[in-house]
Design goal:
This protein is mainly α. It is built from 3 helices and no strands. The protein has one domain (5-64).
């Protein structure tokens, strides 16, 4: 059982920051995922435009969202 979740998250963030990205490993992972999708029959899609209306609606909604406002700060006078 994890007793200090905050400490674990901090450790994981530091670990990820310390590791250098490995382009060739990332390409191998992406290619393996593509091969698996093809083997499962879900890629390439039979109709590439299937569901495009939903994707457009989601993109429009996401692009309308404003950034999170910053808390009000008092200016020094």
């Amino acid at each position: 059982m994890i007793k200090n979740a905050g400490l674990l998250r901090k450790f994981e963030r530091n670990l990820v920051r310390a590791e250098k990205p490995d382009y060739s490993q990332n390409v191998r992972i992406a290619e393996a995922l593509r091969r698996e999708a093809v083997a499962l029959g879900v890629f390439p899609p039979a109709d590439p435009l299937e569901g495009i209306e939903l994707k457009i609606r989601i993109a429009e909604a996401v692009n309308r969202v404003r950034t999170t406002p910053r808390p009000h700060r008092r200016r020094a006078r």
